[in-house]
Specification:
The structure holds 2 protein chains of 2 kinds.
Chain A (H helix, E strand, L loop, with lengths): L5 E5 L3 H13 L3 E5 L2 H11 L3 E5 L7 H11 L4 E6 L3 H9 L4 E5 L3 H15 L9 E4 L2 E4 L4 E4 L2 E3 L3 H12 L4 E3 H9 L7 H15 L9 E4 L3 E4 L10
Parallel strand pairs in A: 1-2, 1-3, 3-4, 4-5
Antiparallel strand pairs in A: 6-7, 7-8, 8-9, 10-12, 11-12
Helix pairs in contact in A: 2-3, 6-8
Chain B lengths: L6 H13 L2 H30 L4 H18 L2 H19 L11 H63 L5 H32 L8 E3 L1 H12 L8 E3 L6 E5 L1 H17 L7 E8 L2 E7 L33 H10 L4 E6 L5 E8 L1 E4 H8 L1
Parallel strand pairs in B: 2-4
Antiparallel strand pairs in B: 1-3, 3-8, 4-5, 5-7, 6-7
The chains are: A alpha/beta, B alpha+beta.
Chain lengths: 237, 373
């Protein structure tokens, strides 16, 4: 890479800035910080960073508005910093086009994993769904719509395969219930999460070695699902 | 949030739901009112048809006695209703002209007025005493809570402060430095859990919990709870019933999983490390039941009724360091906000079983599969 990826870190808490900026720099990223929404949008227009890390609770404007403004101007990935229990805000931000979120308090490795996944999209290196993908004992053949675990073929219904493909193509990133429902069943189904829950249960039964403790298809409680990224062997929060 | 005339009465109301459920309280009120009114009726019957008594002083004094007894037993509104009943009986059956609500003699009017005033005053005074009692109990609970919190916070705060300072020392070897950093991390995890307990407790006490129901699979609730509780209950120990995927239930998944997390933590702390913890799911009528069984020493008979009390720790746990001792109380409060209940038993093969029951509509997942797939 010719230049380090640029990250814009937006948080009004100085202690968070002072702890996170050195961490990101130590992993080879260039970091600029903003404490207000206005400052963040100014910096964003001028510097065009590769990734925005955004806390939703800002003093001067709603974080969701910052999210919307960024999305209007560019397709830059946005990683939301949020508090536990604020699922509604997380879902709202994700539906506005944020890429992912991480819940405070988080550990450094969890943060770095999310940053890597988000940057992969911005640098145009998201998984291309052709050929094979092997993860653990699981092999997905996208051309022939086949899934194997070890030697055994797993038979999936078209909808199950569609769900798996959707999640794998965004590996490591959370997808909201609503966005999954829309892309598999179409807009009218967006408010019927029970269909998705049943389909996910079926898919897990087929591909997870232990469906009660999923390895590949992870639940983000009350938000959506995430296909485990290669390096997402995280301590789960 | 509770709306109240004054902050103190709002406070008493918000706490009293932990002591007495509302439905139970209303039932008790109705019962006392019925007893009071029947006592008035019985006295009237006795005086009129048996003793043929017509001395208004004796009648009004004995009615006043009934009102006072009711006032000490129940709430202000019950006492007021009884006072009005007493005045009505007195006027109708004993003051001339008998059999009407009219009053001929001004002296009788004064007597009726006195009976009504004295009985209203008495009900007011006695209910004030009762309210003060509830407030005092609440204050005692709060100071016990604060004391236990203060105690639970001191240890991790001290450890973090000392370890963070140690990290600065130039003389540390790499291994020693790592050990100090590990102390900081594990104590911070502890503080994080304590903080969550405090937030949950405050939410319950201010009644800032409203159930939001949606269709979920019990498996998802268990997964979320296991993640919340992983600090003191290793996920590898959980043996989760496959039936958890057979249904969809309509409950508040956040409240239910937060409550279940406290039960899991409790199971993790009260059983030998590494021993299995079974999580089973059942739909019983209109209820979702999630039972958590550990392999600990179980519940002793004398502990059973104290288990859900705040800051009560089982005999075994006195030696353990983690937690505030509020876990099961919080679980109970969270489940109550959904109209559910929680109880504890011993398993016939040993260990304790704590069961959460939450009112829930349910559907078999198989019914939806045809639509979904």
């Amino acid at each position: 890479m010719s230049r380090p990826a640029q990250i814009l870190l937006v948080d009004d808490e100085l202690s968070i800035q002072r702890a996170m900026a050195p961490l990101l720099r130590s992993r080879g990223y260039a970091v600029m910080t903003a404490s207000t929404g206005r400052e963040a949008l100014e910096l964003f227009s001028r510097e065009r960073p590769d990734l925005v890390i955004l806390d939703l609770g800002l003093p001067d404007m709603n974080g969701l508005d910052v999210c919307r403004h960024v999305r209007e101007r560019a397709d830059t990935p946005i990683l939301i910093l949020s508090a536990r229990g604020a699922e509604k805000d997380k879902v709202a931000a994700l539906d506005l086009g944020a890429d992912d979120y991480i819940t405070k308090p988080f550990g450094p490795e969890e943060l770095m994993a999310r940053v890597r996944v988000a940057l992969r999209r911005s640098l145009g290196r998201d998984a291309v769904l052709r050929g094979h993908l092997t993860r653990g004992g699981l092999t997905i053949d996208f051309d022939r719509h086949r899934v194997h675990r070890g030697e055994d073929e797993i038979r999936l219904t078209p909808k199950e395969f569609e769900l798996l493909t959707l999640l794998v193509s965004h590996a490591g990133r959370v997808l909201t219930h609503r966005s999954i429902l829309k892309s598999i069943w179409g807009s009218p189904a967006a408010d019927q999460p029970e269909h998705l829950r049943v389909l996910m249960g079926q898919l897990r039964k087929k591909i997870e070695p232990d469906p009660a403790k999923p390895r590949y298809l992870l639940t983000e409680p009350w938000v959506g699902y995430r296909f485990a990224d290669e390096d997402t062997e995280l301590p789960q929060r | 949030m509770t709306q109240g005339a004054s902050p103190s009465s709002a406070e008493a109301a918000s706490l009293s739901f932990l002591l007495v459920p509302h439905r139970v309280q209303r039932g008790a009120e109705l019962r006392t009112l019925l007893i009071g009114l029947s006592a008035l009726g019985a006295l009237t019957g006795l005086y009129v048809s048996w003793l043929h008594l017509s001395n208004p002083t004796i009648v009004s004094l004995s009615f006043l006695l009934v009102v006072l007894v009711v006032a000490t037993m129940s709430t202000r509104r019950v006492a007021i209703a009884t006072s009005i009943g007493a005045s009505f009986c007195f006027n109708f059956f004993f003051l001339a002209p008998v059999g009407t609500l009219r009053i001929a003699d001004p002296q009788n009017l004064a007597e009726l007025f006195t009976l009504l005033t004295v009985s209203l005053l008495a009900s007011h005074l006695s209910s004030q005493v009762r309210e003060a009692q509830v407030l005092r109990q609440a204050a005692e609970l709060k100071s016990a809570l604060l004391e236990s919190l203060g105690h639970s916070l001191k240890t991790p705060l001290t450890a973090v402060t000392v370890a963070a300072n140690n990290l600065n020392a130039a003389s540390l070897t790499m291994a020693e430095r790592e050990e100090q950093a590990a102390i900081v991390r594990s104590e911070l995890d502890r503080l994080n859990r304590l903080f969550q307990d405090i937030v949950d407790m405050a939410r319950i006490e201010t009644r800032a919990v409203a159930a939001e129901r949606e269709w979920v699979q019990p498996a998802e609730i268990i997964e979320a709870a296991a993640r919340l509780a992983e600090q003191s209950c290793d996920a590898a120990r959980l043996d989760i019933d496959v039936a958890a995927e057979r249904w969809l239930v309509r409950v508040d998944p956040r409240l239910t999983s937060a409550a279940l997390a406290h039960v899991l933590e409790n199971a993790g702390q009260y059983s030998p490390s590494g021993s299995p913890i079974d999580v089973s799911v059942a739909i019983d009528g209109n209820e979702l039941r999630i039972a958590v069984r550990d392999r600990g020493i179980g519940i002793r008979a004398h502990e059973q009724h104290r288990l859900f009390e705040r800051s009560y720790r089982g005999t075994e746990a006195q030696v353990q360091r983690f937690g505030t001792g509020m876990g099961l109380t919080i679980a109970q409060g969270l489940v109550a906000a959904e109209g559910g209940r929680i109880w504890a038993d011993n398993h016939p093969q040993g260990g304790a079983v704590v069961t959460l029951a939450v009112p829930a509509e349910s559907r078999a997942a198989a019914m939806l599969e045809a639509e979904a797939l």
